[in-house]
Amino acid sequence: RILAGMAGMTQPELPRTPGRVRFAYGFASVAGNAVSQTWSLWLLYFYAPPSDATIATRVADAWGIDARVLLGITLTVARLIEAFDDPLIGYWTDRTRSRWGRRLPFIVVFTPFWASLFIFFFLPPAGHASLGNLVYLFFLAMAFYMLSNLSGAAQEALLPTIARHPDDRLSVATWQLVFGVAGAIVGLSVSSLVVDVFGFTAMAITVASIAFGVRYGTMLVIWPVAKADDTPSTPGFGRAVKDTFSNPQFIAYLPSFVLFQTGLQMLTAVLPFFVDTVLKDSEVLGMKGSENTGVFTFMLTACVIGGMLLAVPLYRRLARGLGKATAYRIAMLWSAGAFPLLFFAGFLPGLPGLVQALGAVLFCGMATAGVFLFPNILTADIVDYDAGRTGTRREAMFYGTQNMVEKASTALAPLIFAGILLAGDTSENPLGIRLVGPVAGLLVLIAFWSFRKYSLAPDAPPPRAKD
């Protein structure tokens, strides 16, 4: 009778989070995005540039296998091996009991190691083509992935605690997107300029320093709220895994997230290759695509970022009017249609190829804003839904499992990317480079289809835990 009476009661108003805390938590997105976007943009290019590029090749063809395919296999295997520690780390943070709460100890301890290790990707043991560089990259990548998870996943799992009210979650998601774009500016645009002027080592130190400072600085602001997340989850590991994978809303959402991330990584990685081949002869202010790869890549990434910022108000209105899930679906459809436009850039008569490329990536940026805006708050809604089903909160288990599946899936991105480039990656035959856009668009279209069974109403009370 008591439960029946409770079911009919009006749901209590959820507490609101101070604006400075929401702002600071969103600002923390600069760190992860700066590092991840720099990685996506420059890593493959740094180790295996196009044959007509002006930088040294650090991994060469071997055993009859193309160097970029070797790199793709190396990064894929490293990510697949390391991915399986994500649920374990998530479970560990969910069960942690300390005077700093569940998440803060992980951020404090592991952030310096994560930021420092990033620099070593651009300090290979050999400055020329060497299999030793490939072995070095394999072990470095596994260590970096794990440290990224230990530091970043703990901060990510704070979202349901930082923002409990639906309006606060949309506010935090907006700040995360805005400052995620700022991180992308660092990782895509600033890194491009630093590479051109000072080189890759200086670029890596710059990005790592910014990421470390941002993550530590924002942690101080959110500390009082984050510290209050101090109630360990109760089920054992086996039960936690079972409950996570039996959550129907999570299973409906997860494939859409990882497929989009895979397509986006490929699209990001192709930009410097696109400059070196398709835009090789383009000129602006006396600079040429073949000689100023960093500057031209900066122009492309600046258009992506500008498009994302232009689209944020539109997606906020869509979310408030149609719901987050519908707005997320619109973003995926838009991205699926926008990504293939890069294939056609340069083919239209009477319009410079650079202008066509800038227009294509601007439209891509507008589309992807929505797919960046909603996933984290959709996961937070799923966490609340699960807490009602199971009677315990397991935020990091969900984010960790999401990261595991994302890593296992996106680990294939470098390999798929390298395989596509085999169709042509030179200025005489850039077919493979042009095909990356349509393949990425197809992946996002499949993501849209996979999300069709998601039906969680964000403002509805979750089902109550069974006795």
Structure description:
A two-stranded antiparallel ribbon has the order 1-2. The chain is mainly α. It is 73% helix and 1% strand. It contains 20 helices and 2 strands.
Short summary of the structure?
With 467 residues, the chain is mostly helical. Helices cover 73% and strands 1% of the residues. The protein has a two-stranded antiparallel sheet.
Provide keyphrases for this structure.
467 residues; mainly alpha; two-stranded antiparallel sheet; 20 helices; 2 strands; 73% helix; globular; disordered N terminus; disordered C terminus
Radius of gyration: 22 Å
Please give the number of β-strands. Answer: 2
Fraction of helical residues: over 70%
Which spans of ≥5 residues are poorly predicted at pLDDT below 50? Answer: 1-11, 459-467
N-to-C SSE string, H for helix and E for strand: HHHHHHHHHHHHEEHHHHHHHH
Strand order of the largest sheet: 1-2
Number of helices: 20
Q: β content, as a range?
A: under 5%
Q: Choose one word for the global shape.
A: globular
Which helices and strands, and how do they pair?
Layout: H1 2-8, H2 19-27, H3 29-47, H4 67-83, H5 85-95, H6 104-119, H7 131-156, H8 159-162, H9 166-198, H10 200-227, H11 237-245, H12 248-277, E1 283-284, E2 287-288, H13 293-322, H14 324-338, H15 341-344, H16 353-373, H17 375-390, H18 395-410, H19 412-421, H20 431-450
Antiparallel strand pairs: 1-2
Helix pairs in contact: 2-9, 2-10, 3-9, 3-10, 3-12, 4-7, 4-18, 4-19, 5-7, 5-18, 6-7, 6-10, 7-18, 9-10, 9-13, 12-13, 12-17, 12-18, 12-19, 12-20, 13-14, 13-16, 14-16, 14-20, 19-20
